[in-house]
Amino acid sequence: MADDDYEDFAAARQKRVKVVAWVVIVSLILVAGGATVLALLFG
Predict the structure, then answer these.
(1) Which DSSP symbol is given to 12?
(2) 3-class DSSP string for 14-41
(3) pTM for this predicted structure
(4) Which residue ranges run through the membrane (predicted)?
(5) How many C-beta atoms lie closer than 10 Å to residue 16's C-beta?
(6) C-alpha span between 34 and 29 (Å, rounded)
(7) What pLDDT score was predicted for residue 2?
């Protein structure tokens, strides 16, 4: 297998890691925001 094949895999993996990281960050913000709103309403 040539080095460029590995570079393609590395680039695809890096992109996937970035997408997963952003999804996790956004979901944490949404969940924390929702929990804060519920705590303010029912607290």
Answers:
(1) H
(2) HHHHHHHHHHHHHHHHHHHHHHHHHHHH
(3) 0.65
(4) 20-42
(5) 10
(6) 8
(7) 62
pLDDT digits (tens, 9 = 90+) for 1-43: 567 778 888 999 999 999 999 999 999 999 988 888 888 899 7
Q: How far is CA 9 from the centre of its chain?
A: 19
How far apart are alpha carbons 38 and 43 in whole angstroms? 7
Q: State which H helix or E strand residue 4 sits in.
A: helix 3-42
Positive or negative, the CA dihedral 32, 35, 37, 23 is: positive
The dihedral over CA atoms of 32, 35, 41, 43, expressed in degrees to the nearest 10, equals -110
Residue with tokens 């080095």: 3
